[in-house]
Amino acid sequence: MSRGSCRQASLDLGEVLPTTRGLVEAWAASQGISPLIGVDEAGRGCLAGPVVAAAAVLPEGFDPAGLRDSKTLSARQREALAQRLFQEARIGIGQVEADRIDQVNILQATFEAMRQALEALCWEGPVGLVVVDGNQPVPRLPWPQRAWPRGDALSWTVAAASIAAKVTRDAWMVAADRRWPGYGFARHKGYGTTDHLEALERQGPCPCHRRTFAPVAECLRRHPRPDR
Q1: Residue 186 — pLDDT band, cuts 50, 70, 90?
Q2: Residue 185 φ/ψ, nearest 5 degrees
Q3: If residue 11 lies in a helix (H) or strand (E), which one and from where to where?
Q4: Among residues 166, 158, 219, 135, which one has the least CA distance to residue 44?
Q5: How far is residue 80's CA from residue 221's CA, in Å, rounded to a whole number?
Q6: Which stretches within 68-213 are classed as H helix?
Q7: Cα–Cα distance between 148 and 4 in angstroms, integer?
């Protein structure tokens, strides 16, 4: 990752920030901040599967119609937008598996996935600002960044990252459903739904379950079983 210029490193990021979707980019343009890199994750609260992060840079003139927080889109809408993003935008993906999540905790694993996504972007040259969805900046980034609560609702660029991360992770969970049948991964994508918890109790955890997460840990405590 290029470290950019001294001017970028000293940017004042404490200004009043916009509260309407899409105005992050307008605010950045008014300040002469370019380019923006949006970063978001998917799967942080799941009981199974990886945490996946994406980094996105939208090309000049990109039409942001339809871009918004991936959780507010249908699966069909997300997939159509993701196909366009992977074709037209610059996208990097990072992924940290369940065993690593158990080793370092979900917050640190999320930061790892975000750093991987930024590395995968292979961006050369200066960076105006990395906009990270949420309220915590990513440690050890060489670029100026802003942790932005509800960033996926306020920035087209972060929304693009949100969609790319969600679609990538959903595809992983669909494949996991074929590898470890009976848990319903293709339906709930690893979240702690009622049918997932029932399957967990019935079958025990599989290798992609996060053993440090309370429902999985409690299941193992009650019913110690070897990995499937």
Answers
A1: very high
A2: -55, -35
A3: none
A4: 166
A5: 42
A6: 75-88, 98-104, 106-121, 151-154, 156-179, 185-188, 194-203
A7: 21
Per domain, the residue ranges of the chain are 6-177, 180-222
Q: CATH classification of 6-177, choosing from 1.20.1630.10, 3.40.50.20, 3.30.420.10, 3.40.50.12780?
A: 3.30.420.10
Cα-based torsion angle of the residue sequence 83, 96, 194, 79 in order, rounded to the nearest 10 degrees: 0
By CB atoms closer than 10 A (0-12, 13-18, 19+), residue 97 is: middle
Pair 42, 165: CB distance under 8 Å: yes
Binned at pLDDT 50, 70 and 90, residue 19 comes out as: low
In the block, tokens 């019935």 appear at 202
Is the pLDDT score of 14 beyond 50? no
Tokens of 199: 């399957």
**Measuring CA to CA, which residue among 56, 43, 218, 227 is closest to residue 151?**
56
Separation between Cα atoms, residue 129 and residue 85, nearest integer Å: 20
- pTM, two decimals, is 0.90
Tell me the β-bridge partners of 36.
129
Cα–Cα distance, 182 to 210 (Å, whole number): 17
Query: Tens digits of per-residue pLDDT, 72-112?
Result: 899 999 999 999 999 999 999 999 999 999 999 999 999 99
CA distances, 179 to each of 172, 206, 228 (Å): 11, 10, 11
Give 141-163 pLDDT, tens digit per residue: 999 999 999 899 999 999 999 99
